[in-house]
């Protein structure tokens, strides 16, 4: 219900509360020039994103719910944050203040991928609430996702402050039973880092000894070197309790090496009465000066927001100074490990677009060289494409050879039929060329299909080989792989069509039934010699079955057979032509010419291609490498920034 009261108030015009000149935080007026370079150094480290790798000095505010954390931050930064009683801060809020030399106030709120820049300081409250609702739901849940609020203005200092959800013990409304633990875990995540200065906020009107926030801080920082306690709401102290508070601030109750500061921020009534922050700070000074017990604290430098700002600036600078050696060390260690990790992720594309063209050229050339190697030698590394091609060629040869038997049968059948129908008184010879031609034509026509099968097998092997080279070369670039793989497929399809046409031509040529007289004559001569030696050797039972010549000779020159030898010998010429020409044609078209075309097209790919798209890596690997490269760059830059300062 308090929250509701607040949002009523939100909807009112607040111009009187925060006019441009009134957004000054307390830091502004007490910003010490000599410490500025230190804060700027950390700020520039943060600017290059080093806080993603290494914890950078920052200030986290912890305390019970409604202890006044957001109020203190508001007073320090001049930025009006959502405030009120009940659970208001439900996500960690990182307040990055950036001092501009000049220029208008500008804020950017970002969380879980969302980012919005705005020019009106009055929108902070609303936008932070929206962000919290988005991340932690509309009710009372918490969430450990960080909301980052960057404020750039000439009136803030370079500082990062983190507002954290307040510690609660008793769950309210629909809060889960373990809400207290959830919040503590979240807080611990921030205050555990040795780079964090812990501001423990405790209202004056509670028993400080029982404050959970202080206990948590003492656990992570037992020496109290980075813990500063802030007592709030001094105006709400019960009468008579002032001495106790005074003792606490003076460190007489729980001693803290960094000590205590007591501040008075805008109470709910100040807000309702629209008291601006700077006016509230003036009122604070008057409050302390006139305070019967606390006026001495003002003189000792233990009271007021301004005093806190000064002290915090000084503490932060000391803290930064102290952190620098360890920061440098951490940067160096990280740098080494990033360099080592990066080595494990082989070279990838350059990050700059203008370098990508030449990088693409380079890997394309490498790929082309490999394709050339496959085409020229058949080898690539320890792979040999002929290991796969040769069995296909052999299969073709065996098939062709096997058709000699069927051819012989067909010729025999044809002669038998012819003799039956047409033979007259002539002796047993056969000279009907047309009949023979017809048998040949039918026979070779049937060879077309197995030749096409051979073509398809060869295509598959070569295409797979090219694809393998492509996959290996462009493993990291799926789009490039896709393009080249399609290219390979298209080229093979075109080459296959060409080869198909040529094979059909071969078959048609064989249908012509032709050979040079000398070639046929040679065959006769050979077969006569063979016939003799064949018989001789077969008599001795010592010929080798596998020798093509012998087996051929025996099959073709069976003298008991009535088929004229000449006809069968001619088919041997057909066999010899086809058994070699088909594989030769396939090597030429499917391997050599295809490789040439592919190389040509690859070189063309370099021109006018969308390199960024081609070289985009969607693999985990690419992401990791890019990430490592960025880290390397950040760390190197950070190292330079620090060494320039020292
Ligand atoms: P948080 O939950 O710790 O962030 O606490 P808030 O900053 O939201 O403050 C809780 C309430 O206490 C708000 O209504 C503030 O206006 C009020 N408050 C904070 N500081 C003071 C103070 O010094 N005096 C008075 N009277 N009220 C204060
Ligand atoms: Mg708060």
Provide an overview of this structure.
With 646 residues, the protein is of the alpha/beta class. The protein is 59% helix and 9% strand. It contains 22 helices and 11 strands. The chain has helices at residues 2-11, 26-29, 36-47, 69-77, 123-136, 179-191, 212-220, 242-249, 268-272, 277-289, 295-300, 305-344, 353-377, 386-422, 433-445, 448-473, 478-510, 517-540, 548-556, 565-605, 611-614, 620-645; strands spanning 58-63, 93-99, 106-111, 114-118, 147-153, 159-163, 196-203, 227-232, 260-262, 379-380, 383-384. The strands form 2 sheets. Strands 4-3-5-2-6-1-7-8-9 form a 9-stranded mixed β-sheet, with helices on both faces. β3 and β4 (114-118) form a beta hairpin. α17 runs antiparallel to α20. The longest helix has 41 residues, at 565-605. It is rod-shaped and about 155 Å long. The structure holds guanosine-5'-diphosphate and magnesium ion. Magnesium ion is lined by residues 69-70, 83, 88-89, 163.
Major β-sheet annotation: 9 strands, mixed
The tally of strands reads: 11
Q: What portion of residues belong to β-strands?
A: 5-15%
Bound heterogens, unique: guanosine-5'-diphosphate, magnesium ion
Number of helices: 22
Principal-axis shape:
rod-shaped
